[in-house]
TrEMBL record, chain A:
<keyword id="KW-0812">Transmembrane</keyword>
<feature type="transmembrane region" description="Helical">
    <location>
        <begin position="295"/>
        <end position="316"/>
    </location>
</feature>
<dbReference type="GO" id="GO:0016020">
    <property type="term" value="C:membrane"/>
</dbReference>
<keyword id="KW-0472">Membrane</keyword>
<dbReference type="Pfam" id="PF03381">
    <property type="entry name" value="CDC50"/>
</dbReference>
<feature type="transmembrane region" description="Helical">
    <location>
        <begin position="31"/>
        <end position="56"/>
    </location>
</feature>
<keyword id="KW-1133">Transmembrane helix</keyword>
<comment type="similarity">
    <text>Belongs to the CDC50/LEM3 family.</text>
</comment>
<dbReference type="InterPro" id="IPR005045">
    <property type="entry name" value="CDC50/LEM3_fam"/>
</dbReference>
Automatic annotation (TrEMBL), chain B:
<feature type="binding site">
    <location>
        <position position="383"/>
    </location>
    <ligand>
        <name>Mg(2+)</name>
    </ligand>
</feature>
<feature type="binding site">
    <location>
        <position position="381"/>
    </location>
    <ligand>
        <name>Mg(2+)</name>
    </ligand>
</feature>
<dbReference type="GO" id="GO:0000287">
    <property type="term" value="F:magnesium ion binding"/>
</dbReference>
<feature type="binding site">
    <location>
        <position position="638"/>
    </location>
    <ligand>
        <name>ATP</name>
    </ligand>
</feature>
<keyword id="KW-0472">Membrane</keyword>
<feature type="transmembrane region" description="Helical">
    <location>
        <begin position="844"/>
        <end position="861"/>
    </location>
</feature>
<feature type="active site" description="4-aspartylphosphate intermediate">
    <location>
        <position position="381"/>
    </location>
</feature>
<dbReference type="InterPro" id="IPR023214">
    <property type="entry name" value="HAD_sf"/>
</dbReference>
<feature type="domain" description="P-type ATPase C-terminal">
    <location>
        <begin position="778"/>
        <end position="1017"/>
    </location>
</feature>
Length: 336, 1088
């Protein structure tokens, strides 16, 4: 009886055996054999080059017209900044270009800014998302300095540098002298319209200060319908960016002449920024972008080259794996 | 400092000394939070993170929500605080249980039941059989008429045998009822932690006795946490209570040990910190320059014309915050988790369970497993560590006649049996000394068989052997001792016991034969302490030769001697002995001095030889570990010849011609230094030869060498791979460890007894063998194992894996932090050097805490080589020892990898998400996803064995990443609202991910393949061998495994000066020399 007790005690003292505790879980232990590595590289090449071609052709199919107008739409004086800041000057500017290839609808109209730091630390933080959604939170402007409140302490809605510097160039397009309708509905993200910019918040005290930044807002239209503002407030991570201006819901034929009447209001001259008008179609990879296709081709090509080199090395300079004679202590018993 | 305890005085005492409340707690409820936080913030890393977190509260400079640092910081602090709190709570519970245990004490002359915590100094405590002793007591009375009681001290010193304790002679014969009213004073030292000493005096007040002072020793005490056994009741007066008991004083918080890996990680962290500061300064200056040159032109940013005074600091501080993630906040938590798992693996390992006793291995220190893989020196005790410490009486030499030489076992030697049965006087006297001269307690079981409880294994062996030769120790009640020789009983009265100490190396008893009334002194001890004490006429040569001969067989020898005393001679001495025993100051040496007076003119009866067998698997273990490049030093208290013999038989030193023994000896400073220089010269010369050179040194020479020729000795220590140090004391053992540590070697000390504790605590890693000498060593140690042979597995399997895993884990932690930090830095160049964060708060926080820490944590299950392969090729440990897997150059590799990957992610993201797709949140999320994908593949490429957990963690983590982001994306108030859904719908997102992975991993794979195939490391070769199933040529291993045909019982080395060089036996020629010209002797060898 007592011996029975003793033995059971001993067993319980012993650690329980399991494959986990003994570190003996079944494991797959791959090693880098030539076949495996060369196989992986070859497969990579074989898969990547077609994808690259596909992406390139998709990018090739995108028809894109880019027209830089900031340098043309201004009198060639030294007083560019003065001209653009003066509200009295006539800033209308007319540009024409031809469509190189047929553009299927929808055709997107973008404006592109170069050298514009929407990602600047001071800029990107200067907004109040609470204020945009909650009508009662119009005073939550603490993050918006220096465009939080007017001089006499009234809250600015929408506050902050981002909203204040709203892009305000306008474009009107015409094809063969017939006005081309630009649809400015649904250019912003749907989630912004439904969850970020409230239908109950109206612009207030906006651009009323002494310092006028960019565009003004109609105080009778709720924020949820101010789609230009929404697009603008989706800040860009890169100093060169395009933002959607509108969509053209008709096909544009090749060689058609497009005339654009531009109101050149926005000041990019003080910091040498460029402004471009972009008309483009889109495919499954988005707009025109050769980068992905080229990278795929490059990576695929490199891995095939590597695969071939490795195969040649394997054939001409074979080296048996795991040859115990490579172990130095097998050659010389006194390992030091 | 002394303390005075007044027995049974209710008015006094309680205020002066603490009550018996035991408290092992570190904290109280009130001081927990401040104290714990203070402790945590005393570490540099934590201070750094706190500073960063505080800086983040300043909204002007914080790039992200402060939550990204506060969240993980609070989590980490909460985890370690709650761990501390839980430990402390458990300590509180066990304290409470001990404190509230009910005990009987005497108050106002009445026995009362109170809680243990209310015991005051001077209270009389009553204990019954099997009660735990609640505080340190001085015995006053027991149920035994002779005033003895038995205690089990396992909780105190780990020794499982019963110890006898006796009441002081002053209390002898006091009636039980009177005991309750006893009054008196005890003068005792202030509380200390020496559990083997209690030098005190007691005086009883009238009416009990006159003013005589009685000495008290540890024998008169029963200490806290002991158990009363085999005694109906006992009572004693409390002298030390609460945390001031001997046990309480022994409790100490061990200094945390820092592993080499930890030190390296700290160094790398420091380097990264410097790098970070440089980056911050450069970017800060660049940012301010850009602001003045370009920033002021950006009208939409509205830089004020005049900034506040700190304006110049704003941008550098922003970058400091952006770059603060360079030092991964998660590394400490990851490493702690990994380390506790390593420790658990050691605890769980069924292959390290001693099958005989069921004792399993235990990692008491969970923080130093990596160091096991980096051990360079092992310092080992001999007895009980290499040997079984299971003593068996094998041979003896009685009055010049050798017994047991033919059969190898004296107990079956017909000559001896014959001598016993014919009643040869010498033999019977020899047996009597064997049976009487000891502290063994015979315990008679119900069935009538006698078993012996002994402190010393040697004594038990002797008593058992005597019993086999019909000299049976039957009873020991108090001072009366019954032995039975061939059914004729004899009774002796033990008058005094002259105890064994490690300095005296002998013990004696003074007994009176009850029949004749004659008094004898019976002694036993080591030869060098007994042989010089003989009376002038006796020839000791035969005994010296016997000792020599036995020692060369690896047997332990004890000389037995006796001396007849005259009555008055004894009485005179006894009073001196009593006086010495009651001194308070330096009692031990006084007693030793008095003992010396009696232990003279001995007549040597004979020499007993006791065998201590090698533990199973010791030679193989040592051979394997030596192949792994670990150097062994044997530190033993034993004789030189015994030590050398054991060293030979367990592969410690190789037999000639492969090995060579160099002996450092000498009695004076000059001799030792000369000898040391010679040895050093030989070692230098033979260094180039493939030859094992070992030096042998004894404690005396070691002391001199250590004091006077330290430099030479240190050099020798570095050169020599093997050393045997004999006759060394515990403090010398610790000194040697210290010496090797000063030379920057990782040392592991292994031992089993109390004399190894200092060495174990001193070494980088202390391993204790839970053996027969008690648990003292195992308790002080970082690891405790059941048998020496488990050391092989502990080091080669657990140590090696731990090191490899930690090396990967820590470097990977830096890799992933650097990766995301580099991307932030690149982004700052396209965001006007203004310190904008590329990633949002949620991503940054979750990146360190979830996305990247889970996959890497399963690397604690990774095994680069199977255990079998490592055991077959222990040389592979070299990679760990020399730190090949974690050092500045491997770290530079990871640094480069993170830079390359950051470039890949950043360039591909910003180019494929350009123009109309360049929305901030989206681009940030694409880059983050790129990092997550890349790091999954990096972990996969670095993983050697994929178990189900690896797959789950690596690929499951990717799924988890998307799940978390989908959840966050569905919260409308978060900045990330809908981002992840939008991205997942875009084909360009997925092809960007594939592109990032392929671009990032292809070069890594190609490089790794080239290295793996054309410049493989030894680990790679073994991996290939193991996994491709290549069978190794067997010739090498078979020749290696062929054990050198060693027979332990052949003399190898003589200590006699005439035989300076002697090679013995064809199988194991062993070259050793003591003094002649060394270069010569290395080349001249005798071949038989």
């Amino acid at each position: 009886m007592s011996s029975d007790d003793g033995s059971s005690k001993k067993v319980s003292k012993k650690p329980r055996y399991s494959r986990f505790t003994q570190q003996e879980l079944p494991a797959c232990k791959p090693i880098l054999t030539p076949a495996l590595v060369i196989g992986i590289l070859m497969c990579l090449g074989i898969i990547f080059i077609p994808i690259g071609l596909l992406a390139l052709s998709a990018s090739e199919n995108v028809v894109e017209v880019v027209d830089r107008y900031d340098d043309v739409c201004i009198p060639s004086t030294d007083q560019k900044v003065g001209f653009i800041k003066d509200p009295a000057t006539n800033k209308t500017c007319i540009r024409t270009f031809t469509i190189p290839k047929k553009m299927r609808k929808p055709v997107y109209v973008y404006y592109q800014l170069d050298n514009f730091y929407q990602n600047h630390r001071r800029y990107v933080k200067s907004r109040s998302d609470r204020q945009l959604w909650n009508p009662k939170a119009e005073y939550s402007t603490s993050l918006c300095d220096p465009e939080g409140q007017t001089g006499d302490g009234k809250p600015i809605v929408p506050c902050g540098l981002i909203a204040w510097s709203l892009f305000n160039d306008t474009y009107s397009l015409s094809k063969n002298d017939a006005a081309l309708q630009i649809n400015k509905k649904d250019i912003a993200w749907r989630s912004d319209r439904t969850h970020k910019f409230s239908p109950n918040v109206y612009p207030k005290n906006f651009q009323n200060g002494t310092l006028i930044g960019g565009g003004k807002l109609d105080e009778n239209i709720p924020l949820s319908q101010q789609e230009d503002l929404m697009v603008w407030m989706r800040t860009s991570a890169l100093p060169t960016f395009r933002k959607l201006y509108g969509k053209i819901e008709t096909d544009l034929e090749a060689n058609e002449k497009i005339t654009v009447t531009i109101q050149n209001n926005y000041n990019t001259y003080s910091f040498n920024g460029k402004k471009k008008l972009v008309i483009s179609t889109a495919t499954w990879i988005g707009g025109k972008n050769d980068f992905i296709g080229k990278m795929y081709m490059a990576v695929g090509g490199t891995s095939i080259v590597l695969g071939v080199i490795f195969s040649l090395l394997y054939v001409f300079k074979p080296r048996p794996l795991g040859d115990p004679s490579y172990l130095s202590w097998n050659k010389n018993p006194a390992l030091d | 400092m002394k303390r005075y305890v007044y027995i049974n005085d209710d008015n006094l005492a309680s205020d002066i000394y603490c009550d018996n409340r035991i408290s092992n707690r570190k904290y109280t409820i009130l001081n927990f939070l401040p104290k714990n936080l203070w402790e945590q913030f005393s570490r540099f890393m934590n201070q750094y993170f706190l500073l960063i977190a505080c800086l983040q509260l300043w909204s002007l400079i914080t790039p992200v929500n402060p939550a990204s640092t506060w969240g993980p910081l609070i989590l980490i602090f909460a985890v370690s605080s709650s761990k501390e709190a839980w430990d402390d709570y458990n300590r509180y519970l066990s304290d409470k249980e001990a404190n509230e245990k009910e005990v009987w004490i005497v108050r106002q002359g009445i026995r009362k039941l109170i809680q243990a915590q209310d015991i005051c100094i001077g209270n009389i405590v009553w204990l019954r059989e099997n009660d735990e002793v609640p505080c340190d007591l001085v015995l006053l009375g027991t149920a035994d008429p002779l005033g003895f009681c038995y205690v089990e001290t396992a909780a105190l010193d780990g020794e499982t045998d019963l110890k006898t304790r006796s009441i002081p002679s002053a209390c002898m014969g006091i009636d039980v009822d009177l005991l309750q009213k006893i009054k008196g004073a005890i003068e005792c030292p202030s509380p200390d932690k020496d559990i083997r000493r209690f030098d005190a005096n007691m005086r009883l007040f009238p009416p009990f006795l006159d003013n005589d002072v009685f000495p008290l020793t540890i024998k008169n005490t029963i200490l806290q946490s002991c158990y009363l056994r085999n005694t109906e009741w006992a009572c004693g007066v409390a002298v030390y209570t609460g945390n001031q008991t001997k046990l309480g004083m022994c409790r100490g918080i061990a200094e945390p040990k820092l592993t080499a890996v930890d030190a390296m990680i700290d160094r790398l962290t420091g380097a990264i910190f410097v790098f970070q500061i440089v980056v911050v300064i450069v970017l800060g200056i660049a940012g301010n320059v850009f602001k003045d040159k370009e920033g002021r032109k950006l009208w939409y940013v509205q830089y004020p014309k005049e900034g506040p005074w700190y304006e110049l600091l704003v941008i550098p501080l922003r970058f400091e915050l952006l770059c603060s993630i360079m030092i991964p906040i998660s590394i400490k938590v990851s490493l702690d988790l990994a380390k506790s798992l390593y420790a658990k693996f050691i605890d769980w390992d069924v292959e390290m369970v001693d099958p005989a006793t069921g004792i399993r291995s235990n990692a008491a220190n969970t923080a130093i497993s990596e160091d096991l893989g980096q051990v360079e020196y092992i310092l080992t005790d001999k007895t009980g560590t290499l040997t079984e410490n299971k003593m068996i009486f094998k041979r003896c030499c009685i009055s010049g006649r050798f017994y047991g030489n033919e059969s190898g076992d004296a107990l079956t030697d017909a000559l001896l049996l014959n001598a016993v049965s014919t009643g040869s006087a010498d033999v019977i006297l020899f047996l009597k000394v064997m049976a009487i001269c000891n502290t063994v307690i015979p315990v008679r079981s119900k069935s009538g068989t006698i078993s012996y409880k002994a402190l010393s294994q040697d004594e038990e062996a002797l008593v058992c052997a005597a019993a086999r030769l019909h000299m049976v120790l039957e009873n020991k009640i108090g001072n009366i001792l019954d032995i039975n020789f061939n059914t004729s009983p004899m009774r002796y009265e033990v008058l005094d016991t002259l105890e064994f100490t490690s300095d005296r190396k002998r013990m004696s008893v003074v007994v009176r034969e009850c029949q004749s009334g004659e008094i004898f002194l019976l002694s036993k001890g080591a030869d060098e302490t007994i042989l010089p004490l003989t009376y002038s006429g006796q020839q000791v040569r035969t005994f010296a030769e016997a000792v020599e001969q036995y020692a060369q067989m690896g047997l332990r020898t004890l000389c037995l001697a006796w001396h007849k005393l005259e009555e008055d001679e004894y009485q005179e001495w006894a009073s001196m002995f009593k006086e010495a025993n009651s001194t308070l100051v330096d009692r031990e040496s006084r007693v030793a001095e008095v003992c010396q007076r009696l232990e003279r003119d001995l007549e040597i009866l004979g020499v007993a030889a006791i065998e201590d067998r090698l533990q199973e698997g010791v030679p193989e273990t040592i051979e394997t570990l030596r192949k792994a490049g670990i150097n062994f030093w044997m530190l033993t208290g034993d004789k030189m010849s015994t030590a050398i013999q054991i060293a030979l038989s367990c592969n410690f030193v190789s037999p000639e011609p492969k090995g060579q023994l160099l002996i450092i000896d000498g009695k004076t400073e000059d001799e030792v230094c000369m000898s040391l220089e010679r040895v050093l010269l030989t070692t230098r010369i033979t260094e180039s030869e493939p030859k094992d050179v070992a030096f042998v040194v004894d404690g005396w020479a070691l002391e001199i060498a250590h004091k006077h020729c330290r430099k030479l000795f240190t050099e020798l220590a570095i050169l020599s791979r093997t050393a045997i140090c004999c006759r060394v004391t515990p403090s010398q053992k610790a000194q040697l460890v210290e010496l090797l540590k000063l030379c920057d070697y990782r040392t592991l000390a292994i031992g089993d007894g109390g004399n190894d504790v200092r060495m174990i605590q001193q070494a980088d890693i202390g391993v204790g063998i839970s053996g027969r000498e008690g648990l003292q060593a195992a308790r002080a140690a970082d690891y405790s194992i059941g048998k020496f042979r488990f050391l092989k597995r502990l080091i080669l399997v657990h140590g090696r894996y731990s090191y490899n895993r930690t090396a990967f884990l820590s470097q990977y932690s830096f890799y992933k932090s650097l990766l995301i930090c580099f991307i932030q830095i690149f982004f700052s160049f396209i965001s006007g050097v203004s310190g904008t964060s590329f990633f949002n708060t949620v991503s940054l926080m979750a990146y360190n805490v979830f996305y990247t820490s889970v996959p890497v944590l399963v690397s604690v299950l990774d095994k680069d080589l199977s255990e079998r392969t490592v055991m077959q090729h222990p040389q592979i440990l070299f990679y760990c020892q020399s730190g090949r897997l974690l050092n500045p150059s491997t770290f530079a590799g990871w640094f480069g990898l993170s830079l390359f990957h950051a470039i890949v992610v950043f360039v591909i993201t910003t180019h494929s998400y350009a123009f109309e797709k360049s929305e901030m949140e989206e681009v940030g999320m694409v880059a983050l996803s790129g990092c997550i994908w890349l790091q999954a593949f990096v972990v996969a490429l670095e993983t050697n064995s994929f178990t189900i957990f690896q797959h789950l963690a690596i690929w499951g983590n990717l799924v988890g990443f998307y799940a978390i982001n989908w959840i966050v994306s569905s919260i409308s108030t978060s900045g990330m609202h809908t981002i992840m859904f939008r991205l997942c719908e875009q084909p360009s997102y997925w092809i960007t991910m594939i592109l990032i992975v392929a671009t990032g991993m292809c070069p890594v794979l190609a490089l790794k393949y080239l290295r793996y195939t054309y410049r493989p490391s030894k680990i790679n070769i073994l991996q290939q061998t193991e996994r491709l199933g290549i069978i190794e040529p067997q010739s090498r291993s078979s020749s290696d495994k062929d054990p050198p045909t060693l027979s332990v019982y052949e003399p190898l080395l003589s200590e006699s000066p005439s035989a300076t060089r002697r090679s013995v036996g064809p199988a194991q020629r062993f070259d050793s020399f003591q003094s002649p010209s060394p270069p010569d002797s290395t080349h001249t060898r005798k071949d038989n």
